[in-house]
Amino acid sequence: xxxxxxxxxxxxxxxxxxxxxxxxxxxxxxxxxxxxxxxxxxxxxxxxxxxxxxxxxxxxxxxxxxxxxxxxxxxxxxxxxxxxxxxxxxxxxxxxxxxxxxxxxxxxxxxxxxxxxxxxxxxxxxxxxxxxxxxxxxxxxxxxxxxxxxxxxxxxxxxxxxxxxxxxxxxxxxxxxxxxxxxxxxxxxxxxxxxxxxxxxxxxx
Length: 205
Description:
- The chain has 5 helices and 7 strands, in the order H-H-E-E-H-E-E-H-E-E-H-E.
- It is of the alpha/beta class.
- It has a domain at 83-193: Alpha-Beta Plaits (2-Layer Sandwich), CATH 3.30.70.
- Helix 4 links the parallel strand 4 and strand 5.
- The longest helix is centred in the first third of the chain and has 30 residues, at 21-50.
- 18% of the residues are buried.
- Residues 56-82 are annotated as: Disordered.
- Residues 86-176 form the LytR/CpsA/Psr regulator C-terminal domain.
- This is LytR/CpsA/Psr regulator C-terminal domain-containing protein.
């Protein structure tokens, strides 16, 4: 054979394969894509678990404030009458004699004015099972009756619309033992005259 190249011996020259640059480029691009997707997914997971970045933190800061308790002033009301301004009629609806006078004397020592003292009318005589009944006009429901009620806490309170005058009645019932102890009655009067303001919850930072 003629030409520039001549084959010598019984071996043929080994031809090199072209470098597979295309495959390498594809691998590099694929690796970059996988890493990019993985990084984006990781960021999304972190973002989900941390609550969405600064916006969530800003929103959450408004709810993390501890509630502030502040006493709200009680609504204005008319002052309650003092015991010396209340006239009490004491009636005995039980079978125990002398109970009305004894109770009236004790109420007088505590500052109340005493009106009529005696046995209860047929409407209540032997018909009051509890410690007693406090009777008065409609205007006494939130004034005189609560004050008198501090002396006999378990007594029932009733009003009579047609009743005239400001005096109130204490009808002693079968369950009556004695008036409240004076120190306890005095504390109840103080609490009644100066009720504690109701707390109001207010959120603040």
